[in-house]
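=== RUN LOG ===
request id: a7f3
mode: sequence -> structure
chains: 1
length: 685
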Amino acid sequence: MPFVLRVVLALALCVHLSFSQGSVLLVGGGGEDDGDWSDAPYRWLVEHAPNRSILILHYSTTSSFLPGYFRRLGALTATNLVIPSPAVANDSATARTILAADGIFLRGGDQWQYILNWKGTLAERAIREVFQRGGVVGGSSAGMAVLSQVIVDARATSVDPRSALRNPLSSGITFTEGFLGFAPGIIGDTHFYERGRMGRLLAMIAVYKSQTGQAITGAGVDYNTALAIDPGGTGEVMGAGTVTLLRLNEASSYTLEPSKPLAMSRVLMDQLTAGYKITIPGGAITPPATATTFAPNKVSMALPPIVLDGGGQASSWTKAGGSLDKLLTFGEFPSDTIGIFSSPDGPPGATAIASYLEGKGIPVVQLPLGEGTKNDPLTAASCAGCRGFVFVSNREDSLAGFLSSSLVGDAFAEKLRGGSPVLMVSNDARLASDRAVGRTEFDGYGAYYGYLTLLNGLGLVKGIEFMPRIYENSDSIDNRFSGLFWGMGKSAMSYGVLIDDGTHIVLAGDSRLRVSGPTPALIVDARNVTSLDFPSFRDPGKANPRQNAALVGAVVHVVRDSQVFDLSNGAPLGVLDPWSSGPRPSGSWPSDKRPAGSSGFLLKQNYPNPFNPATNFDVTVDRRSHVVLEIYDMLGRRTAELFRGMMDPGTRTFRWDATHDASGCYVAKLSRAEGAVARTIILIK
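=== RESULT ===
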């Protein structure tokens, strides 16, 4: 190393000894502009640079806008510097230029290029020195990603969210550590809801834990949004959207298997809007004065089976084993007739469904539903003659009204009371609930501009917000993800369920939700949310604020094909025995015959359940192994450890005496080296 540079770095280290470490600005991407969302976080960066000297770094190009923008926000100097190669990054002149600044900003691009060209160089060391002597380092998009302790480096590919959910171990998730890393305990993801990246961030924290044994907090920062972390480790959310924190705790579990979808349960989720503060990495959250408490509505559902298809194309509904085939397992078809409710404007979806059913020899009757037909006696009579129903391509803002206090609506309600199954496909699936989010396809920036609406649904299910088609069209991804949380908050929903094209879910009146399809469903449990707020940011010239929501204290589950989720207890139940291909009586549901786990590693349901004050657990292992049996409450706190040690092949019974524990739901978790299984148990005193 040249003598002059050694002296400069030594002086910088001496300065570091008399000052605290610096500040960090994590920006989720988006376009900066005067008088817009970016003013507050970028001004914060300037104010946390002791001498207000800002250096804008990139590996390829310069910015014509940012130098002037930083100066307008109070910087005394603001210049660009391009570092395109390791040779330039190791040049002493480059290091001196960096050390002359006290505010560093990394523009977006490709995080692997930052790593490839700067890691282990004098440039990286100089950036570290700026930070360690009390300066500020910020980054947007890829520039933010490389400031995290753990970097998803995209060395081979940018990880697609759908691929990460469907096959996480082959989706291209790779990590880099030891580069910059000014946000400890965090793996960052950007453009979070703009690109629907919640599923991939969940996969990332699961893969990282499986590779290292260490839990890491996933921090998803939305576009046009920032998390500003001061030297004391307090982060404040700024800008238009949300910062979503995803964490594993002792009650969390995940399953990663080659060529199989992701499964996860009880991942802690805190979603924050502007004004929320959080300690890094501890996780303590301080809400703003605008936040309110959250009192969600309880979940209830109609008695007949309800099938909801997340796809917007007929090819999804009519594929072998798809939602139409599932509907046919709930009635005596082909002897029974299926009625197709659709808008009278001639939707092609209704025609495709009718053709598919008729090809199977099943009688079909079209039930055009509109203002002119809702009280038509012939349509009502046709409805009364059906034993199953499909809803497709209906008017989202009017469907509930057409079936309320009308002849057709009365006939349909009578059929529901008789147990007739219902299939709702595409956007109609949202309307199965009592409230829904509308206009998700109206404008690509609908949620950002405040264009989404709240709709009345049919109320077949209450207390759950459904959002289908989550990855079907990239232009509407933000509207669907952001809209789900906005709708949950506005309508006080206990749960939110995100369903992709090709996947369908079944609800059968017993509080169980079964998933079928290649993409797992994402289930957000908001029943224990403690703090709710909504963005106040309005895009310049728009009348309504950004539509999303802060939810503190939520829990996320990733439920894959053939898994069942218990809505009453907020817990996955594992895999139930497959349904036969033959017909089933209306409203029937397969029993849970299989204990949690595999044939060689079983935790049977406790008995009695509910219980007071003691209950028993049967544990079976197929080989001598080290196992742990623990009890957790629904906040993830360990309540009891029933066993920890070696267990010989066979079955043992363990007893939990909960005399000194409060009534409520608990989770029994059985662990050994290859994974963990869990059961939800109920203590009633």
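=== NOTES ===
Confidence is low (pLDDT under 50) at residues 1-19, 575-599.
The chain has three domains: 3-286, 300-527+562-575, 596-683.
=== END ===
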